[in-house]
Design goal:
Structural class: alpha+beta
Oligomer: single chain
Strand content: 15-25%
Helix content: 25-40%
Strand order of the largest sheet: 4-3-2-1-5-6
Number of strands: 19
Length: about 350
């Protein structure tokens, strides 16, 4: 990526959040600070990571904080050495306390918030980023298919959850994008049923699984809804509506439209079939280093979709006490439409 220092009226960019730090360095760590200037790049960390950080030493100057030293004092020293006056910082990441420390430590410099700029920059994925996401999705689908084949009546949500995590890691995932959602029957009517229970699967139940994995720092995300036997008639009805709503949205989403316009493609179809009130969440979101990034594909979103963005398309209908349906694919936005990165079938009854 290339930072536009002139556009942002800064001479240095400071990233302390794990996500932006990784984005700028491609080096994972729980502590550190990435500094980019037009003259050089600096990575400040502690002794836990200083040895491993040598992997990025060709592009970054590595500075190790010693016992008793303060991060902001080191930053100030580097800025003075480089003759820098205007510093960009992550205003959305900072707490009141951390901002006070930053402002006090860099009182001789002018600070400017650039979180929105970094979010916009990260929203458009490079070819390498898209490949990492695609590989994460390939791993997820392989794991999902193995787990789905082994689901049996009598298994609990917790057991399927454990199998999904195990198979994902065994298949090659570096970790999970988020805590998987495994919901049986009436629990699938809760869009974020984040805690699997001892609820045991019955043949008539609808099953909703929403999960993703990480590969080289990047996430995947998908949802499939299915059953082992015939489900209640209304669940079959809403499954067909959700599937058609998604198909219509995927056919028409393209660069240049707003998040609101993309969301409306599926939302209006669901509304026209009488289930508008039962589709309470947004159609989708950007995905990358975080499972939820810009842009927002939502009813009120003014975000403009741009070529190279990776987003989800996940309409859903949820009927309290009966069950819910969500179908989620992950796609790349192009000028002429989308490229679907999700290949897993969308069959309701196995």
């Amino acid at each position: 990526m290339k930072i536009d220092f002139e556009k942002n009226k800064i001479e240095a960019l400071v990233a302390m959040s794990p996500e932006n730090r990784f984005y700028l360095t491609d080096f994972p760590s729980s502590f550190g600070c990435a500094v980019l200037t037009e003259k050089e790049k600096i990575f400040i960390t502690d002794t836990r990571y200083s040895e491993a950080a040598k992997a990025i030493q060709e592009t970054f100057k590595i500075v190790t904080i010693k016992s008793g030293e303060k991060l902001h004092e080191l930053l100030a020293g580097e800025f003075k050495r480089l003759g820098i006056e205007n510093v960009g910082y992550e205003d959305s990441f900072m707490t009141v306390s951390s901002f006070k420390n930053l402002k006090d430590g860099l009182k001789d410099f002018k600070l400017k918030g650039i979180s929105d700029y970094l979010s916009e920059l990260r929203s458009i994925k490079t070819e390498e980023e898209r490949q990492r996401i695609a590989t994460a999705q390939e791993i997820a689908e392989e794991a999902f298919k193995k787990v789905r084949r082994n689901i049996k009546v009598g298994m609990s949500e917790r057991e399927v959850y454990a199998e999904l995590v195990w198979e994902s890691l065994r298949t090659g995932a570096d970790g999970m994008s988020f805590d998987p959602i495994v919901a049986f029957g009436e629990n699938s009517a809760k869009p974020h049923h984040n805690q699997p229970t001892e609820r045991r699967l019955e043949k008539k139940d609808i099953i909703l699984i929403d999960f993703g994995v990480k590969h080289k720092g990047y996430c995947s995300d998908m949802t499939r809804t299915f059953s082992l036997g015939p489900v209640a008639n209304e669940l079959q009805v809403i499954y067909d509506i959700v599937l058609k709503a998604q198909e219509y949205a995927l056919k028409h989403i393209k660069a240049g439209m707003t998040g609101h316009e993309a969301d409306a493609l599926a939302r209006e179809y669901i509304k026209s079939n009488g289930y508008g009130e039962q589709f309470g969440h947004s159609l989708g979101h950007g995905i990358g280093i975080n499972v939820h990034e810009m842009p927002r594909i939502a009813d009120k979103s003014k975000c403009i979709l741009k070529e190279g963005m990776v987003i989800t398309c996940e309409p859903g209908i949820y009927l309290e006490g009966l069950g819910g349906v969500r179908i989620e694919d992950m796609v790349v936005v192009t000028e002429s439409g989308i490229i679907n990165m999700t290949y897993c079938d969308k069959i309701l009854e196995l």
